[in-house]
Automatic annotation (TrEMBL):
Top-rank taxon: Bacteria
Alphabetically ordered keywords of this record: Lipid-binding
Function: May bind long-chain fatty acids, such as palmitate, and may play a role in lipid transport or fatty acid metabolism.
Keyword ATP-binding set for record: no
A Pfam family annotated for this UniProt entry: DegV
Protein name: DegV family protein with EDD domain
GO MF annotation list: lipid binding
Phylogenetic placement of the source organism: Bacteria, Bacillati, Bacillota, Bacilli, Lactobacillales
Length: 285
């Protein structure tokens, strides 16, 4: 069976990964006033943050439309018997719901929408593993089972310089975010049950990043399988690469990847956010 793997732009794979792994994506959009830009299509991450710095009003974001999904799915129908469509958490975006709506209405190729419960690097782990299994000729059921497993064993944490955007976008509660703003702390945030929630409240970014490392160290120590990890950043590459270099030296058994947070997630995290996600490394089992 020929299975296509589809995701959305918040997986933040690079062009080489999309091409090599045969993954297709629908872009989400960031909006400045009346101007709409599809991320990774109409605007780069660098251009986005430069535009934010010059803008008096915070941009917003929006999910792919039903038409976006219909166009992509129809283009894949002639070459594939099934489509597995993996998207960022339905608790923070309507992307999965739109994919699900289109999947129910289309004839021909069977479409299997999947709610990753995650975003960014956490979503990317699922997408890349699904693509690997699809290339090996595994069945839809096998791939979906693997995605369900990844959904439960993947950790994701990040630190933002300012929680204002997350509060305004409704991604964290006003109560949790208000305390962080009032006390000028750098909360370590995580995702649980598909939602962004505070993990810890820490005074400085350096200490917050150390907290992420401590959580990571516990997972590496207690895991009964090889670990892979991805470091992500919102337009602060040098700081994030320095962080990853330290981790690579301390944890030589872990396979590290490096990625970024693009415009749509950057709308909410703001510039300067750094995060990490880790999970089972099936390629080394």
């Amino acid at each position: 069976m020929r299975i296509a793997i589809v995701t959305d732009s918040t997986a933040y794979l690079n062009k080489e990964e999309y091409n090599q792994k045969g993954v297709h994506f629908v872009p989400l959009s960031c909006i400045f006033g009346t101007d709409i830009y599809k991320e990774e299509v109409d605007i780069t991450t660098e251009a986005f943050f430069e535009k934010v710095a010059l803008s008096e009003q915070l941009p917003t974001s929006s999910q792919p439309t039903v038409g976006d999904f219909t166009t992509l799915y129809e283009s894949l129908q002639k070459d594939y018997d099934a489509i597995i469509s993996i998207h960022l958490s339905s608790r923070i975006s309507g992307t999965y719901q739109n994919a699900f709506s289109v999947a129910k209405s289309m004839d021909g190729t069977t479409i299997y929408p999947f709610d990753s419960g995650l975003a960014g690097a956490g979503l990317a782990f699922q997408v890349k593993e699904a693509a690997r299994l699809a290339k090996q000729g595994e069945s839809v059921n096998t791939i979906i089972d693997r995605l369900e497993e990844l959904k439960t064993i993947t950790d994701i944490y990040f630190v933002v310089d300012d929680v204002t955007n997350l509060i305004k976008g409704g991604r964290i509660s006003k109560a949790a975010g208000g305390v962080a703003t009032l006390l000028k702390i750098k909360p370590v945030l995580t995702m649980r049950a598909g939602e962004i929630v505070p993990q810890d409240k820490i005074r400085t970014k350096k200490k917050a990043m150390k907290k992420m490392e401590t959580l990571f160290e516990e997972s590496v120590r207690n895991a009964h399988y090889p670990i892979q990890a991805t470091i992500v950043h919102a337009y602060c590459e040098d700081e994030a690469r320095a962080f990853m270099s330290q981790l690579e030296e301390k944890y030589p058994t872990v396979r590290f990847n490096f990625s970024f947070l693009g415009p749509v997630v950057g709308v909410h995290t703001g510039q300067g956010a750094i995060g990490m996600s880790w999970t089972k490394d099936y390629m080394r089992m």
